[in-house]
Design brief:
heterodimer, A: alpha/beta, D-Maltodextrin-Binding Protein, domain 2, eleven-stranded mixed sheet, 11 strands, B: mainly alpha, MetI-like fold, 23 helices, 1% strand
Amino acid sequence: MNNTRRNLLRLVGATLALSLAGASAFADPSQQLVDAAKAEGQMVWYTGLIVPQVVRPLAEGFQKKYGIEVKYATTGDSDTVLKLTSQARVGKMEADLFDTPGTAIAPLAAANLIEPYQPLALADYDPMFKPASKLYSGIYTLFLTTTYNTDLVPADQAPKTYEDLLDPKWKGKMVWTDTRGVSGPPGFIGNILQTMGEEKGMDYLRKLSQQQIARDPGSQRVAIDKVISGQYEIGVMTYNHHAEISKAKGAPIGWVKMEPLVANLGAIAIVKNAPHPNAAKLFLEYLFSEDGAQIIREANYPPGHPNVQAKIPAISPKTGNFKFTLLSPEVASQETEPLKTWLKIYDELFK
Amino acid sequence: MTAIIDGSSQDARPRISGAGRRYRDPLWLLSLVMVVIVGCLVLPPFVSLVRNSLFVTMPDGSSGAFTLENFARLTENGHFLQSTINSVIFALLSTVLAILMGGSLAWIVERTNAPFRDLAYLMTVVSLSIPGVIYVPAWLFFLGPTGPLNDLYRLAGGSGLLFNVNSMTGMVIIEGFGWIPLTFLLFAASFRMANAELEEAARMSGANVFEMMRRVSIPLAAPAAFAAALFIFIRSLQAFDIPKLVGTGAGIKLLTTDIYDSIRTVPPQIGYASAFSVALTVVVAGLLYLYSRLAMNASRFATVTGKGYRPRPLALGWARWVCGGIVLLNVLIVLVLPLLMLLWVAVTPFIRPVRWSALSSLTADNFALVLSDDRYLELVTNTLIVSASAATVTMLLMVICGWLVARRRVYHTVLDQMIALPMLIPSIVLSVAMMDLALRSPIPLYSTLSIVVIAFVVHYLPFGMRYTFTGSLQLHKELEESAGVCGATPLGMLRRIVVPLLMPSIVAGWLFVFLNASRDLSTAIILAGPDTKTIAVAIFDQAINGQFSEVAALGLLWSAMMSIVAMIFYFLVQRRSNGGGISF
């Protein structure tokens, strides 16, 4: 609960600061950085973001503005860690930047492979996008919540609160992914324990485990598709932006503000001993500028930039008006606490 | 079994025993070169495999202290016995299913005059070009609770589910079906060269078709069948995607179920997967030893002799329509059903059951999205270069090795065993080992297409070997001997006798490697650099970020293109060989 309140307060604070300062408060990168970056001429980005909608528009926009070429390679999170550690061991760094849904930050920080940096352009962003450690910067937050098939479940009967999920009528009709991270059941467990407290939370989880929630081995997208196709009535820990995108295409899917929602941060960071560190820094300045935030918005993600609203207002807590618990990259590592405990609870109760 | 074999007890194979002890194989240098090349390709990843299994991996990826924990973990999940039994049942049944379907299809296509036979090769080429990342979900949807199968059942008045895909049966069906094309190709290569005289002799001696199959066709195909069966069995035992994707819902645990999770952890815990592979290597080594005892008298199976071997198809009576039906059934299962399913998914705006009412919402948006993207030219070019190079290098090496091993020339045991090793190395371990190798290599290899090619060559060596080895087994030595008598050097003999006769196997193997390399995701993703992206990268990007309908559209377009490329290649080769012999 505390976390959520703090987040809300931060949000309110940021909004206030913004309305006082106006839109012109964003610092341009220093000429020194621009010159150094131009001298480097190019940079390499390991990315898991969607190429046609996010990566390429950003690369092209950056090249147009500064004349610096952005090379990118699509990698999954675990590939990123494997590649960067292997390159570091031999001392042949190829990458300058990498992004991650959060999980790669802790292992790469442990291997001392992240160069701390906080872009100036983040100045007016909510604090959750710029951690004190400066190990990463948040690109956007995504929100996980409960979804339902609108053909099978009328809106007024859909579960609204976590308690509602315990209703026997949902037994065997709910699905979540088997994801072993904060965007899967362990994140749900963490959210419950943080909101309800240890004792009440465990009590709730034990009751929930009687509901026989199906574990789907696919992604959150696969799980929500199974709700859309009617295989299950309720999706737990599914993304609200997925629901909105499908709803726009006519799919029978709705989502509820089951508060607090679980928030994940998409993070980006600079590699230690990067071959083009200045170009990477300049790229981050561009990514977090209003131009960059527009590209994020067009790809249907809720941007963190205070001046740029989400394309679908409902999916962002600012415009959609909901509370959430941020499960930041710091808690997203499977090998450290608290996720380790949450995984253990998941394995014991739900497997 | 021996009763049916033509008189080939004359074995001119060089024996290193008694008086022949000082005999030196004239091909020793060639054998040695092959041992060195294969060793350089196969041993580094195998050494990493063993090292990963025995040492702790540090945060920076280097090896730490010695540990046996990875092996202990294999047995400590509490259900070790049950998991082992499940794994063996799964692998065994999948193998049996694949061989029943693929083997019978091969016999029908190669040895009979049944109708629709030409469809079988088309089916194989197209199915080998469908990426696994869309093939498995297609089956899951088809057999799933909201899929057409259960829909039809409910339409027919049934309630609930006719078939629960999340079960051992579902796992076996999807895994087994996936192996039909390979089984078909392996069996077809051997049936094609089977000596029709033996079957005809059986018929003339009064055997009916079934008796002939039981006593002649099947025993003749036995060594190839056993090799193929063992191969598929091992691959299925190691499979972790289908057990995880299909079995999770049913709570069925296999030995590999946890491995799926452990290599998807960030960073991946490769030690556990490696320990499993090492343990499996020991078991398989035993099986391979058994097999090598069996293949010892390989020349007994030679059917392509100097006497002319153009096989004639068997004229079936009414049974040809039954056989034609079996061909159509295979085409339906391997190709038509999954493709229709994928097409449905690709043209619907969101995933929904197959309904008339949904027809009005059909859209070409997903295809338009793929086609409007102009980055594909680079990806397609890179993919074709990588796959064609990998297939060519693999088959070049394997035509020599397959023949050397089939002829039991000097060093054949070590060669055979080394070539079998990559079968046991999980592709993630192979990719990581290759990445390390490329980074440490004095020649700049990292982030180049060359390293991707090398990784594919290592990965597909055992597959290529299956084609050339089986083919060589069936070439009778008398052809080679007569070349020798006529004064050909060993290399000249290889080039002018063995390679032309093996051409059908070589082409089939080449296509197999080419198509599989082009749809391989994991290796290509780890090894691709910013300038060496292949189509795998685009499919992976869609698969992690997009909706399944977009992945399906991209996958279908890709399969269509690769099928056409493979078909053109096939016609070109067939024309060059003047229509002789090559039917794939």
